[in-house]
Amino acid sequence: AITFGSIVHSILQELYVSNENDSQELTQKAVLSKEDALKRAEEIFEKESWKLPTERSRQDDKARGIKIIENLYQVDNYIKPGIIAIERKISGIKLGDFKNSDVGLTEFVQIEINGKLDKIELEGDILRVVDYKTGNSKKAQEKLLPPSEVNPLGGDYWRQAVFYHLLLENSDISTDGKKLVTRYVFIEDAEDERGFSETQDFE
């Protein structure tokens, strides 16, 4: 599952292109045509599928990967140009340098946090982290829940959204006047007619 997810992420990050070597920067990006995207998916699977355990799994996972790309492109204007950063690495953020924090971090000021974000997109005043998930969307519902009496720390994905917010807010990306949100995209969802599903934006 990890290998399949890694291969699919490699494909997804190549859907967005520019004339500059700036995939990680928040700049205007174009998108591959559906035909070019499917061709690139084939090429990446050919190159990376040796990591999968059997020939059967290689063929099955390749078919799954191709279907994911087809589904994303069949929804009108879902894969679209925009101001986008892909696989953005954010590192060296010290807890002692956190902005807008009212939590005492004196004992942890030198501890650093790091992360890599699948996709960042700017739409008007919304700066959105998009996290692609290959897992089961139904099983993930509990992971999306905010803190409660039963689970005071909140679900795994809710905490992950908080982490993304902190990374963005304390990175060198301009967030002034922007609403910072996270959206999860479950790229395989048989219960959705599109073949994939999305969450609401988490602030």
Explain the overall architecture.
The chain is built from four helices and seven strands. It is of the alpha+beta class and 203 residues long. Helix 1 (2-13) runs antiparallel to helix 2 and helix 2 packs antiparallel against helix 3 (55-74). The longest helix is centred in the first third of the chain and has 20 residues, at 55-74. The chain is globular, with a radius of gyration of 18 Å. The mean pLDDT is 91.
State the gist of this model:
The protein is an alpha+beta fold. It contains 4 helices and 7 strands. The model has no long low-confidence stretch (mean pLDDT 91).
Notable features of this structure?
single chain, alpha+beta, globular, 203 residues, 7-stranded mixed β-sheet
Distance between the termini: 29 Å
Total count of helical runs of at least 4 residues: 4
Number of DSSP-assigned strands: 7
Instruction: Give start-end ranges of low-pLDDT stretches.
Output: none
Any chance you could write out the topology, listing elements then pairs?
Layout: H1 2-13, E1 16-17, E2 27-31, H2 34-48, H3 55-74, E3 82-94, E4 112-123, E5 126-133, H4 156-169, E6 179-186, E7 197-198
Parallel strand pairs: 5-6
Antiparallel strand pairs: 1-2, 2-3, 3-4, 4-5, 6-7
